[in-house]
Amino acid sequence: MPATPRRATLATVAASAGVSVATVSKVLNGRSDVSPATRSLVQAVLRQHDYVAPAPRRESPGAATVELQFDADLNAYSMEIVQGAVAAGAESGVGIVVSVRGGAERTTAWARALVAAGRRALIAVTSEMTARQPAALARARLPLVLIDPLNLPRTRVTSVGSTNFAGGLAATHHLLSLGHRRVAYVGGPATAGCNQARLHGYRAAMEAEGALVLPGYVRSGHFRYRSGLAGGAAVLDLPRPPTAIFAGSDEMAIGIMEAARARGLRIPEDLSIVGFDDTQIARLTSPPLTTVRQPLREMGGVALRTALRLAAGERVDSHHVELATELVVRGSTALVPESRA
């Protein structure tokens, strides 16, 4: 693992700009007794060195905060993560700040702002990271933990997830055990690591049972309702539509349910559906959704405790933690109807 880049100091910036340390300090503090030309020069050198101001001293452990950052609007999945992180934070005397910020906005200035706000660490959820973003955080000496990352940068990054492959395998085996052979998969982004693992589990189960994955039976999108609605409509309109669908998330499964109802299909009499996550909405659907339970609250708690260990300079046992998934059978799956077998 490459050494952590050494953070620039006031003395480093002052030497590069050819001014005194006091002048650099005045620029950082917004003092007016610095000429515009000198101020511009110092600011340019600060940017050149990726200078990050030291975090403010904390008067008590209770003042510590960890940022929990999402890259899209919060939904049922997000709230499970939040509740787990908040509960773990309360046990550790650490506050949780929840924010939504797109990946493209994550720059050196973003890392500086987090440090300036006194954050102990950053937990990013279902985020796509470029190699520059973890590097910016490393320069700022701000620990990073990813939850269900869409990708893993080449640099070593600590992450928390679940046994997505095993979950995909269990979901598909469940449908196959009910007699279904025309089983489709409607999942999230094709390049997302968690989605690829669920898809591989689906394909492995189909292959083990000698069930063909027919053309058009695999769809990718986002782990959201609209993608489930569109993906469900696409596979249900095929010349040989599936009798069962494995959805990459509970929210997608709800969209598939709506697409099925719009076509006059009953669930589970005409179509069986399995989701993934086991969020609260899985228990509120009609019928209740059979799904793969992803221990989201536990993942939020593990991520928080791991981030605090990294912030304290401790070593972690593993840079990637996977928590076990579990199939939860409810009312959205049933034996394949003889008329559609």
From TrEMBL:
Residues 8-62 form the HTH lacI-type domain. Pfam families: LacI, Peripla_BP_3. Keywords: DNA-binding, Transcription, Transcription regulation. GO terms for molecular function: DNA-binding transcription factor activity; transcription cis-regulatory region binding. Gene3D superfamilies: 3.40.50.2300, lambda repressor-like DNA-binding domains. SUPFAM superfamilies: lambda repressor-like DNA-binding domains (SSF47413), Periplasmic binding protein-like I (SSF53822). This is LacI family transcriptional regulator. It comes from Nonomuraea maritima.
